[in-house]
Amino acid sequence: MLTVLRHIIQEVTTAEDFKQALDIIVKRTANALATQACSVFLLDRNRGEYVLVATQGLNPAAVNKVRVPVNQGLIGLVGEREEPINIDDAHLHPRFLHVAEVKEEAYRAFLGAPVIYHRQVLGVLIVQQEDPRRYDESEEAFLVTLATQLAAIIAHAEATGELGDLLASSTANRIEHIYNGMQGAHGIGIGTGVVIYAPFDLDAIPDREPDDINEEIASVNAALSAVREDLRMMSERLLPTLPTEELALFDVYQRILDTSDLGKEITDHIHAGNWAPGALRKTIQTHVRHLESLDNEYMRERAVDIKDLGVRVLTCLQKGERVSPVYAERTILIGETLAPTDLAEVPDGCLAGIISTKGSSNSHIAILARALSIPTIMGVGELPIHELQDKELIIDGYLGQVHVSPKPTIRAEFERLHKEQQKLDAQLDEGRDLPSITKDGHQISLMVNTGLGADISIALSSGVDGVGLYRTEIPFLMRDRFPSGEEQRIIYRQLLASFAPRPVIIRTLDVGGDKPLPYFPIKEDNPFLGWRGIRITLDHPDIFLAQVRAMMRASEGFDNLRIMLPMISDVSEVDEALRLLNKAYAEVSDEGFDIIKPQIGVMIEVPSAVYQARALAQRVDFLSVGSNDLTQYILAVDRNNPRVASLYDALHPAVLRALIQTVESGHHEGKHISICGELAGDPVAAMLLVAMGYDSLSMNASSVSRVRWVIRAMTKKAAVKLLHEVLSMESAKKIRAHLELALEQAGVAQLIQTRR
């Protein structure tokens, strides 16, 4: 059965369109189970009906015409229960629904499996047979397994608009192409798609209009010729050692690369309007899909060889250099994974939005986007990234949607919303010089998280009390080597000078996890529980000492430096770090720098640090909770994984209790306690953090005005009452709803709007 299933999926992946894929599934499934009928019903959510979209054995004329209400029939029952229904005689079941057009009178045996994707029922896959009988366990398992595969296909079709087209009653009702992802950064972004891709990654190459068709063809022919010559030389070099049959493969590969064969296919794609790398990608992918669909295992393995040939040709086309993107005046940056350097390379004022097909709203790139107030959508896994170069796009950062080639009426509506958003931001900015003090006189410091040079000016204009977190890894990520001590000193001194005399907390290098350095590769099966943060720098004291010495040298004359240690999980790490910090201070002082020894703090990011918070506070000057990682580790949710992103919520009761324990432990030792991360910048959570007793909140600059407005609209007494109320609740959703209601009653609900 597994072999049959694999063959079905391989054939489906080579289908020309969604409709053909469904037809393949019903035919091959009926044959595999030796049953007389197999059908697919898909859910039309707008009408609340299951639609027959493909069948083998029922009346073909009923396809796209027969609709079953969600609360009727055995189809509806499968969807309601969200589990397989296996019946030996369907006619005797009380939920049996007779539909004359389907012509299923002869069928008695019935087995239906729900098609579920991300907890949503998308449809029902059924098989039927004339003779009354129950399908056995292996048959049921096969259908359930196939339904899980079908779910991903349907989800893709829904994202690309093919599902909507199929369900629509006429071509006049065709649905606009809208792709769903996750909110990365709120806002409306309108602009032109610019695809960022890794060099030599064939599958990542986007489609693009060629500037000169003849030049593209010439470059392809030259690349094919160069690879053929490389293969010839390899064949001659290996002649004494390889068997004859293996050497024969080199001849085969050279013939495949002949300009009259593969070259002609690539050239045809170029003439059709694609540049050389895009034409190469399409040609290679077509051959790979064909080979992978074959029954012969030897031929399937040749798909790897074909892809390798494609990469070799691509390498020659790119000549070892990445093709620099051409940025639009209003650029929507698109990529599978994007790095801070990709954002930094966009000319000032041109970045209108970001789309990432991977990651979640808590990924590092999303956090940076929020810092820069750039509308961002994450985890749009079904996005046809190759087709979006130079396309007009709209990012809806409130609903987490991407609109491709929107209609004029849709664009006009989004432009109106964008202006309303700018108007609200302007109103909030008017209060940037007001103190963040509650109505009953409790003041709390608002600090800013920063890391990119571009967001320092934004932070300064937001009226903050200092820097609560400077991410030193960003300057490291933007280089192809470790920055020298002097380069670091210059960066830190500019930062300290910009905010003086206000305090600046600089975090020591925090790489690993979702922040690998390209020149310091770390490959681990579970990087978030591996070698990262302080663990790396303590293992490499040369890196740690060079960095903290640069910080201390940079602080001369300002004395507003604070140093913070990331990813602390044990007091021994703090003891070792303090030893190195004392060594660095002594060395810098001996060099003649007149500096005050900076305050040292620890980040509380893992559960063990929560339980050792008092012991940690006894060793350092301040504590700072890193809410992003702490939430991730307490809830055991990878915040970069779109599949479990819905489980990540810093308002989870367990997280709230950890936050309370931390602030109580720190204050018991008389130490300043701050919190940084996305929770600190959430206007909904601000009330709870004030009630818990945090001394300062550190957030992205774009969140400061909203949080300040909320703090000024409430009393600490009301916040404490609210905290007691939510601590009796058992789910993050209930807590958030309760807090949003409180903000609505306080008259500031517009500040937390996340849906239009």
Kindly describe this structure.
With 756 residues, the protein is α/β, with parallel strands linked by helices. A hairpin with a 2-residue loop joins strand 5 and strand 6. Helix 6 packs antiparallel against helix 8 (262-271), helix 8 (262-271) packs across helix 9 and helix 18 crosses helix 19. The longest helix is centred in the N-terminal third of the chain and has 26 residues, at 213-238. The radius of gyration is 30 Å and the shape is globular.
Question: Characteristics of this structure?
Answer:
27 helices; alpha/beta; globular; 8-stranded mixed beta sheet; 756 residues; 45% helix; 8-stranded parallel beta barrel
Straight-line distance between termini? 48 Å
Q: What is the residue-averaged pLDDT?
A: 84
Radius of gyration: 30 Å
Can you list the strand order of the major beta sheet? Answer: 7-14-13-9-10-11-12-8
Strand content: 15-25%
Short characterization:
With 756 residues, the protein is an alpha/beta fold.
Helices and strands, with pairings:
Elements lengths: L1 H12 L4 H15 L4 E8 L4 E8 L10 E3 L3 H9 L3 E3 L21 E9 L2 E10 L7 H24 L1 H6 L10 E3 L1 E4 L2 E8 L17 H26 L5 H13 L5 H10 L4 H17 L4 H22 L12 E5 L4 H5 L6 E6 L7 H8 L4 E3 L13 E5 L4 E4 L3 H22 L15 E6 L5 H5 L6 E5 L1 H5 L7 H15 L4 E4 L26 H6 L1 H14 L6 E5 L5 H20 L8 E6 L2 H5 L1 H5 L4 E5 H9 L17 H16 L3 E5 L6 H10 L3 E4 L1 H12 L3 H11 L5 H15 L10
Parallel strand pairs: 9-10, 10-11, 11-12, 15-16, 15-22, 16-17, 17-18, 18-19, 19-20, 20-21, 21-22
Antiparallel strand pairs: 1-2, 1-6, 2-3, 4-5, 5-6, 7-14, 8-12, 9-13, 13-14
Helix pairs in contact: 1-2, 6-7, 6-8, 6-10, 8-9, 9-10, 16-18, 18-19, 24-25, 24-26
